[in-house]
Design goal:
- 53% of the residues lie in helices and 18% in strands.
- With 412 residues, the chain is of the alpha+beta class.
- The two termini are 30 Å apart.
């Protein structure tokens, strides 16, 4: 039986109902830890949710990995030959969940005497439409084909607002390719992701139309998008993908390379990485606040329990044993504060996740509500906070060794 833990439990359990000078200090320390836990919990959930949503939006437009041609130009030249052999090898590669082709073509869209520069992205039947569908705000996206022209286009809300275009409006799009080519398309759907960098330029149509605009054959595409099973393994999957693309490059006489989505959008992902520094700053501040309040509370407890310390010393208890009693006592306070803080924070996060009660300006934050994402990292962070808070109490507990039994027993 752990005697020190037993004594600490008795002291902690009998502190109520009596007028003690330590009660306000204990309450402040306990709520200090709880508030720190709330701030820590909510901050991690918000930052994790923010990073997850931004990453999902970027990868929704471009996949996790792409197979591109080194010699590609902004107007869609220098294609990748997406033959059945390459597609089959990519689909069979360990870690790859889905493979899809696309063709891009820059152009000028004109409607209601307004015009906008856009990039048409032609997609085929195998293209995963889940990301586009979940961001559709008006209309319905069709199942685009690579064998027939749909004469349909999906544009963003920002483009639609600038062009004053609505669902079913017929708009003209002009492309430069050894002369000017024009296409008249019908707006069938409008999407909105709040990711302005891509919303402002990206529109979707069928793969067949984009191929005809570039005068390509049915195997040539701008790039191949690859979705992986586990984003944490994206670099390893990219290395395995290089083996398949090296064979294809040699077979088709092309210079292929395989960038990850982070390499394609370094500024956006660099910005997201900076958020990790914010998490560490918050954790350090939370630990400082919790440590300060707990240290103050422990010192007050030691002063109040001076007579108890004297009695324990007089019956032969060692200083180390008595210090353990008060550290255990303080750990009870830290533990209760962490549990209370986590429960309150979880309720607040669930409320925000379900209702979106706290809104954001999408032009500044790329989303219209505060995002919440629960993560397993909360478990080790809570454990680490408990251990560090307990460790910070070792130094102030040394005050016990300076208390003399004869004087302490008169202190009461």
């Amino acid at each position: 039986m752990n005697l020190e833990l037993l004594i600490a439990g008795r002291l902690y359990g009998t502190r109520k109902g009596k007028r003690r000078i330590s009660r306000p200090a204990v309450a402040i320390a306990q709520w200090g830890v709880a508030i720190g836990a709330i701030v820590m919990f909510v901050s991690i959930c918000i930052i994790t949710g923010f990073k997850q949503q931004i990453r999902d939006k970027i990868t929704g437009f471009g996949g996790h990995i792409q197979v591109q041609n080194y010699e590609a130009y902004s107007d869609g030249k220098a294609p990748v030959t997406a033959d059945t052999t390459l597609l089959a090898e990519l689909s069979a590669t360990k870690g790859i969940m889905h493979v899809q082709r696309y063709i891009q073509k820059p152009g000028m869209i004109v409607a209601n005497k307004e015009y906008e520069g856009i990039i048409i992205k032609g997609i085929g039947e195998e293209y995963d439409l889940a990301f586009i569908k979940q961001n559709i705000v008006e209309g319905e996206i069709p199942q685009f084909s690579d064998s027939a022209a749909s004469n349909s286009i999906v544009i963003s809300r920002s483009i639609a607002n600038r062009l004053k275009a609505r669902i079913n409006d017929r708009i003209n799009i002009y492309f430069l390719n050894k002369g000017i080519k024009a296409r008249r398309m019908s707006v069938v759907a409008i999407y909105e992701t709040h990711l302005a960098e891509l919303d402002n330029i990206m529109a979707f149509t069928d793969l067949y139309t984009a191929r005809r605009l570039n005068n390509w054959n049915d195997k040539q595409v701008t790039a191949i998008e690859i979705a992986v099973n586990d984003y944490r393994e994206v670099n390893a999957v990219r290395d395995r993908t290089n083996q398949a693309t090296a064979k294809a490059a040699e077979r088709n006489g092309e210079s292929l390379y395989v960038p990850t989505i982070e390499e394609m959008y370094p500024s956006l992902f660099g910005w997201l990485e900076m958020l990790d520094q914010t998490v560490w700053i918050i954790l350090v501040l939370v630990l400082c606040i919790a440590g300060f309040t707990m240290t103050s509370g422990l010192l007050i407890l030691i002063l109040e329990k001076t007579s108890h310390i004297g009695i324990l010393k007089s019956i032969g208890a060692r200083d180390l044993s008595i210090r353990k009693v008060f550290i255990y006592y303080a750990c009870f306070i830290v533990g209760k504060g962490l549990v209370a803080g986590n429960i309150i924070a979880a309720i607040l996060c669930l409320l925000q996740q379900e209702t979106g009660i706290i809104a954001l300006d999408p032009e500044m934050y790329y989303m219209d509500r505060v995002p919440i994402e629960f993560t397993w990292l909360l478990v080790p962070v809570n454990i680490g906070m408990f251990i560090i808070s307990a460790a910070m109490l070792i130094l102030p507990s040394t005050l016990i060794s300076r208390i003399e039994p004869t004087k302490a027993m008169k202190f009461d």
